[in-house]
Task: structure prediction
Amino acid sequence: DAGVIQSPRHEVTEMGQEVTLRCKPISGHNSLFWYRQTMMRGLELLIYFNNNVPIDDSGMPEDRFSAKMPNASFSTLKIQPSEPRDSAVYFCASKLGGWEETQYFGPGTRLLVL
Amino acid sequence: GQNIDQPTEMTATEGAIVQINCTYQTSGFNGLFWYQQHAGEAPTFLSYNVLDGLEEKGRFSSFLSRSKGYSYLLLKELQMKDSASYLCAVRESVVGQNFVFGPGTRLSVLP
Result:
């Protein structure tokens, strides 16, 4: 299995621009998570989906952030407009449903907003 | 409020045993997780405790005391490759998957 795939791996953009991060979960996994990691705030859960449905988006920092999961094999996290404080590493993770507790993280997208 | 505490840094010697502590105060509890994260890489799952006691998995063990809001990760027979950050995380909700992560403990294993 290829594991969780994220793209792009690195993104540099200017303040005000739209940023779209992409994630392909492991095939057969039905829970998907988006995280953000910074030195100041550590690792934070932004939103998670179960069977493609957003369950809890209370971690999404503000309306500039939105996430979608149109099907079981693809999810996006969009920031519009981006701000310098959004600079972070964004991880996507997936896991099987039921009693399985192991989350598998993708390699992350390193975002720098200038 | 939510609060998870871990030591910021620890140093140990190759072949030794190290214990990384985690204390938590969260609005709810439905499991405690430990992750390992090497510099510049993604976290990888190490262990999960939901009941009090010790869970052993090879060289790694994790302990939980819910009444004390306390967990530790025990690493035995330390190897150089164990140098990494170790993140403690609590799942707060019984029905959901909302996680709160601690700041992480950076472990350096010296020869």
Summary: Residues 71 and 83 of chain A are 29 Å apart (CA to CA). Chain A has a mean pLDDT of 94. The longest strand of chain A covers residues 42-50.
